[in-house]
Amino acid sequence: MDIAVWNSIFLAVIYFLYFAVILTTIFVVILDNRSPVKTMAWILVLFFLPVAGWILYLFFGRSTRKEHLISRKGYARLSKRPMAAYQEQPSVMAEYGKQRLMDFFSRVNNALPFSGNRVTVYTDAVSMLSELLKDIYRARHHIHLEFYIFEDDAVGRLVRDALIDRARDGVKIRVLYDDVGCWKVPHDFYEQMLCEGIEVLSFLKVRFPRFTSKVNYRNHRKIVVIDGCVGFIGGMNLAERYVKGLGKGNWRDTHVRLGGKVVYGLQTAFLTDWYAIDRTLLTSAEYFPPISVKGGVLGQIVTSDPVGEWRDIMQGLMMAICSTRRYFYVQTPYFLPNEEVMTALQTAALAGVDVRLMLPKRGDTWLIHKGSLSYLSEMMKAGVKIYLYKKGFLHSKLMVCDDELSTVGSTNMDFRSFEHNFEANAFFYDRETAMTLKEIFLADQKDCFLLSARIWEKRSWKNKITESVVRLLAPLL
After folding, report:
1. I need a labelling partner for 193 at 20 to 30 A (CA). Which of 41, 251, 352, 463 fits?
2. Where does the record place the catalytic residues (predicted)?
């Protein structure tokens, strides 16, 4: 046979293998039994952009839910001391509707509710970092830090140098950062801490050839625990932009400092993540010291991850929305809700609940922001009030309802937080905390404009088409 025939045979084999791989991948996606929306999104990408779609699926689409980061026995050992403290306290009770939510988190997430806590709220990085540094220098036994981003800039170096100072004083320090969130950070930045005796680990390190199995599942949590009795949780990372903002305008975020036994929940979350990476199970009483009553707040630390059986925080938010009687206020930088959460918000608004959603007028990521805007017409049609923050970038993840329930943490209202990220939120069943966060929301509302459905529908067809196209990819973003 001549060369032309061999070339034809070779090309036919290549095409056959190519289509076989694509069709097999589509078959695997279907057998994975995910939500129909997500399944169809992957099928469309694989069908219309086969090469790019296959690569994207390898990097971002493969499910790891059947993997276990820690055994039941290991978790039981880790939670033994918090459980003993929980059982020793008087019965904790919340309003009836919120009691069901608290019980749900206890059963599904093993999140233990503790009373007698103190909560301090920060709405800017300067005040939060100031208090964090004070607590770092007050530490006597250990400091545990876990951040999605720990940047090599003025803020990151300030915290790093403070940790080095305390390590030299004999304080045991462990730092956990996300490998993808800190991709651009030079290794030397962490090496300086390692050289001073600080234990530093990256979460789910992404390296070839195992790159594709881990890049999509990121640790988005922001947790600090100091001496087992003081903790921080919220939306702020350790980076200069959280202080200076992006370009024009400020960076609006929300973080809380916790004092009381609710910190046991933060400690458990950190030590679980540490075990998942280091395979060292830390259960000493030194990490769960006796804590006296610090205040009057009933709180609960709730985590979610992509490897568990349930979507804990997402399902809890749905319960909260559906049980709301008067109002439900939400701040989130990204709004790419799944069908369940979107329906819950619309149903609450249609039932007469005052549902308010606050988003940044300008996003930090063009693609995700365009996708977020595609949902606004449907929200407004159901009666949801949309407020666009115009003073800068709104990165706050704050929710409050009925002057009874509130939550602050790392969870955004999007597919990624609900399905792919390791997240952590503090839930408070307390009127005083709810009122504080409600006042913060209303103060931010003054720096927003209320979006009108009539005006919104007059935006250009170019924007409408762009938003609709990006929305097709929402389950994958």
Report:
1. 251
2. 220, 222, 227, 395, 397, 402
What is the DSSP code (8-state) at residue 92?
A: P
Mean pLDDT of 197-208: 83
Given the residues 38, 98, 214, 220, select the one marked as catalytic. 220
For residue 353, the model assigns a pLDDT of 98
Asked if residue 361 belongs to a domain, the reply is: yes
What is the domain range of residue 262? 72-304
141 catalytic, yes or no? no
Give yes or no: residues 184 and 294 share one domain: yes
Q: Based on the domain organization, do 296 and 236 belong to the same domain?
A: yes
C-alpha distance across the termini of the chain, in Å? 50
The model's pTM is: 0.85
Q: Are residues 328 and 253 in the same domain?
A: no
Query: E strands, 361-458, where?
Result: 385-389, 392-394, 398-401, 405-409, 413-414, 423-429, 448-450
57 inside domain: yes
Q: Is 179 a catalytic residue?
A: no
Count of structural domains within the chain: 3
Both 190 and 118 in a single domain?
Answer: yes
Residue 403 among the catalytic residues: no
Q: Do 80 and 21 share a structural domain?
A: no
- Cβ atoms 116, 88 nearer than 8 A: no
- The verdict on 300 and 317 lying in the same domain is no
Catalytic hit among 273, 402, 414, 430: 402
| Integer-rounded Cα radius of gyration of the chain | 23
| Residue among 397, 414, 430, 447 flagged as catalytic | 397
Asked if 397 is an active-site residue, the reply is yes
d(CA 136, CA 238): 14
For 261-286, write each residue's pLDDT tens digit: 999 999 999 999 999 898 888 889 89
Amino acid of residue 163 = L
Please tell me which residue in 152, 178, 227, 414 is annotated as part of the active site: 227
345-388: per-residue pLDDT in tens? 999 999 999 999 999 998 888 778 888 888 899 999 999 999 99
Tell me, yes or no, if 124 is annotated catalytic: no
- Coil, helix or strand for 145? strand
277 assigned to some structural domain:
yes
Q: Which of 12, 28, 61 is the last residue of a domain?
A: 61
Q: Does the residue 422 lie in any domain?
A: yes
User: Which pLDDT belongs to residue 66?
Assistant: 42
- The catalytic residue among 38, 222, 361, 438 is 222
Q: Are residues 382 and 423 in the same domain?
A: yes
Q: Which two tokens mark 251?
A: 């960076």
Whole-angstrom Cα distance, residue 454 to residue 94?
A: 41
Same domain, 51 and 145: no
